Amino acid sequence: MIDALVTSIVILMAWSFLYRENIFYRIGEALLVGLALAISVKVGLDVLFNRIYIPIVVKQQWLSPTLIAVALGLMMYTRFSKSLWWVSRWPIALLSGAGLGVAMKGAVMAQIVRQLDIGSLFTKDIFTGINNLILLVTAITSLAYFLYTFEHKGALAPVAKLGIYSMMICFGTTLGLFLMSNIGFAISLIPNVVRPPGLYASIVAIILIIVDNLIKKE
Amino acid sequence: MSFLRRIEIPIILFAIGSLLPLIDYYTGNLSVQASELLSWVVILVTFSYLIGVVNLFRYHLNNIRKGRDVYYSVLIIGSFLFYLAIAYLNKSVYDWIFSKLYTPLSMSISSFVGFYTYTVFLRGARLKSPTAVLLLAVTIVILLYNTPTIRALSPQMITIGDWIKNVPNTGAYRGILIGMGISMIVLFMRAIIGRERSYLGGG
Amino acid sequence: MLMVICIGLAYFYMKSAERKAPRYRIRKFPALEAIEEAVGRAAEMNRPVHYTTGIGGTDDQYAPMTLSGLAILGRVAEACGKAGVYLRYTTPRAYLVPVSQDIIKAGYMKSGNPDMYSPDMVYYVGEYQTAFMTSVMGYILRERPAVNMIFGATLWETINQLGAGAIAGCIQLGGTPRLYYIPIMICVCDYLLIGEELYVAGAALEGTPGSIGYFRGQDLYKILLIILFILAAVASTAGFNLIGYLSAW
Amino acid sequence: MDRAVFIIFIILIAIPAISPLGLPISISSNTVEVYRQIEDLKSGDIAMWITDFSVGTWGQVGPAEVAVYRHLFDLIRRKGIKVIIVTTYSVDGSLNAERILREYVDTKGLKYGEDYVNLGWIPGYETTLMGIAKDFQSIVKTDAYGTPIDKLPMLRNVRSISDIALIGFSTSTSPDPYPRQLGGYGKPLIINTLIATVPWTLPYYEKRLITGYIGAESDAAGYEKLTGMPGEGLRTLDAQTLSHIYGVGLIIIGNIWYFTRRRGGGKG
Question: For chain D: N or C, fewer Cβ within 10 A?
């Protein structure tokens, strides 16, 4: 009972933002930022405990390479020193490099080579062939749109134009599919605020909005 | 000392960091080192949290000192300290706050994507040019295609929607994906030879 | 293996293209050119500029997008310094705090207005997406910045942030290679970088002969792939799996 | 203007929540495909489900996840399959898995450790996925409750991906690592994800690296119909229908508004 009421009040606090920026939303925002930060710090401490404290201190693996990571991690804090701040760049450089490496790993095979593969253009089933042709044309034209050093004129102009149109189809599809995934949250929350005890909280909220409107008019 | 200050050192670190996973992926060598590197990354990211927390605290303590939005700042810092303490002191209160306060709060914030999608439809959807007409026409078709009741009533809608989704959409998607792959390679090259170094603070 | 060779070839090509670079002209990027104009409007209205690179960090597969977003941040900071506008950068990644502080500081220094810079321009909100969303939404409707920019790896927070921006009437600039959020940007942004254009923004902002070489090399690479694409289609019509053969090689 | 849009939307979705309208629905072919693959599991087969979606996306991914869990646990009873539940991406996933096991799935009469096991969150994401595929015993040390895996009979013979009959995963972020690490072994690999992520998975689906996908509530509802266990999915579909038609309406109204304002000399 209390639990459900708290949940519905919290939902309404956040949704009050739809009406206008107000004190309830602000409280919700501050709570969320504080709680989320606490959760990430706790998870972070758990990670450090499991990956550093347990192997090194408990299991006595003093020569583990993790120590280098610890040293690099501590280097980050040189940021707060006036003379050694530049050391803090090293760990961040290593970290960014690894991120880029991970991203690149997927880029070449998944994003380029695999995508080049295309079905036959003439098949027994004529529609499959036509579909494959359309696939080829849309792919090539939208790729051609992104040519940077060739001006979009002459033979390239219609190609780039077609490229824009095929991309628009792609974006339209995405936009259409979007709604379904996006309204899911609201739909799954609504039972909390239209069934008791949440309903009572909603009624209070509606009254507050009406009062606020009246005050503003005066 | 001045040698250590040089910009080349972080760039070399960056290059090592980015090449290790790639060498592992393409040749299968150095896989131990590569996975060690990735576990270091997790540790480094975790260490960095403190920097963020210090930043947040300084920002809000400044606010409190200046008397600007005091309650708000106090609430953020207070809820952070309280919840972090609770995490280690009382597991059941921690769980209760997580499931009854944090989760609905975070879901209702996420639910704004639904509301704002309508804002986008209302404000952004303008038949300004032929491209916009095409964009919106496809959007409407796909919206109807995705409507559960219309799917049940008219199977033709599913055929049209599936065709758009699987043929021109996939084609254009592939084109964009390939382009992004190439640009990423170029960015990668710029980065490992030290031309792109925004990660160093623009140094 | 094949790709490694290709990358090597492309690199040498780019080096040689650098020398004859002045011959080529790069297509214009309206979004990058609009930065100054938008910041100028902010100065007229005496309101701040809000900037974010999205939820992505540089430690995961979003690294290239975030790096490009940070490169643009440098330019924005410079423009803000010139116009005397307050810039606010919100990030959910702790290690980006020092990085972005340095970038913004350098930008304000370059434009000869270092006194305006304060470390508080960078605001960290914890690693979680919802916390990030809510504080940006709150900030936009509370402080009503004149310009709202999102360049980087964005997930759904984009919709919320751009939606709030649209309601607050901000000038909005955006760019992301994350396909699902491009349509939203098309609808509510005044200028945008579509897809891969973000990756090359760093090079475009640089504008030196060297960076033009990159563009040229990249374009030729694309043409090569288009040819390969057509060849693959022809080959598969003839019953031969060219791509399968190449990737096994 | 925007407020009116929001209020009408809230009213539209509130109506079915108060009293369901019972509008007709259809079951998509991809849902049937996923259902078949799971239904085809034989006695003694081990199915592994990787629950990796974040708490905030429960509304979209949750219903289908619940439907699949219910189906899997139903199959334990009916056919004697075994189920492994694991999380690799972030701690959120294991919280979701525990919530489903606690609130939605009937585990009465099933033996933990013999019929099903919950391994909890194994940090490492892609590294963990690779470990699961190649060397299960070295990456998995204990289950979610701290029991060493040699105390769990059903895991004793699981060495690598070849000992697992079917793998499914749910994600609210990138689907790329899963087919990269777990695809291409000739095992069914099923994804449950956000509808916005579905186009992303299609290239993998065409290459059969992913063998089936479900996304969002309509698939969840279809799945509930197929298994005959109604749940959240079916309830929300009426609201879906109304809000989609509302979306189409708004695009049209938005354009009319725009053009009348422009004719009237207002700014474009």
Answer: C
**With an 8 Å Cβ cutoff, are B121 and D124 in contact?**
no
Share of chain A above pLDDT 70, in %: 95
Q: Determine the residue of chain A that is closest to C6 in CA distance.
A: A108
C-D contacts (CB, under 8 Å): 13
Query: Is the distance from CB of A40 to CB of C127 less than 8 angstroms?
Result: yes
Q: Sort out which chain A residues have CB atoms less than 8 A from C99's CB and list them.
A: 92
**How many CA atoms lie less than 13 Å away from D115 in the CB half-sphere?**
16
Q: Give D267's pLDDT tier (boundaries 50, 70, 90).
A: very low
Looking at per-residue pLDDT, the higher value among B125 and D14 belongs to D14
Does a structural domain hold residue D260? no
Instruction: Say if D203 falls within a structural domain.
Output: yes
Rounded-to-integer distance, Cα C102 and Cα C105, Å: 5
Phi and psi based region of residue C144 (left: phi greater than 0; alpha: psi -120 to 50; beta: remaining):
left
- Tell me the ipTM for this assembly: 0.81
* Residue A169 to residue B117, Cβ atoms within 8 A: no
Q: Is the dihedral of CA D94, D100, D103, D105 positive or negative?
A: negative
Q: Cβ–Cβ of D56/C167 closer than 8 Å? A: no
Amino acid letter, D84:
I
Find out whether C177 and C195 touch, Cβ atoms under 8 Å: yes
The pair of structure tokens assigned to C125 is: 């909100």
Residue C6 has pLDDT above 80, yes or no: no
* Residue of A21, A46, A164 best to disrupt the C interface, most CBs of C under 10 A: A21
Contact D149, D143 (CB under 8 A): yes
Q: Which domain holds residue D170?
A: 26-234
Q: C124 - beta bridge partners?
A: C91
Burial (CB count within 10 angstroms: exposed 0-12, middle 13-18, buried 19+), residue C3: middle
pLDDT digits (tens, 9 = 90+) for B43-64: 888 888 888 999 999 999 999 9
Taking the Cβ of residue A39 and every Cβ of chain C, the question of whether any pair is shorter than 8 Å is answered with: yes
Which residue from D134, A59, A96, C20 is spatially nearest to B188, judged by alpha carbons?
A96
Q: Show residues of chain A in contact with C196, CB under 8 Å.
A: 146
| Cα atoms in the 13 Å half-sphere on the side-chain side of B174 | 30
Residue C150 has a pLDDT of 92
| Number of Cα atoms under 13 Å in the Cβ half of residue D49 | 29
Residue D10 forms part of a structural domain: no
Tokens of C83: 């116009």
Count of beta carbons in the 10 Å neighbourhood of residue C1: 11
Residues in chain D within 8 Å Cβ distance of B161: none
- Over residues C56-112, the pLDDT tens digits come to 888 877 888 888 899 899 999 999 999 999 999 999 988 899 889 999 999 999 998
A182 contacts on C by Cβ (under 8 Å) = 156, 159
CATH of the domain at D143: 3.40.50
Q: Using an 8 Å Cβ cutoff, are D29 and D67 in contact?
A: no
Q: Answer yes or no: are the C-beta atoms of D236 and D226 closer than 8 Å.
A: no
Beta strands in C15-162 (DSSP E): 49-52, 87-91, 122-124, 147-151
* CB-CB neighbours of B1 under 10 Å: 6
pLDDT digits (tens, 9 = 90+) for B103-115: 889 888 888 888 9
Could you report the per-residue pLDDT of A75-107, keeping only the tens digit for each?
A: 888 888 888 888 888 888 888 888 888 888 766
Provide the domain count of chain D: 1
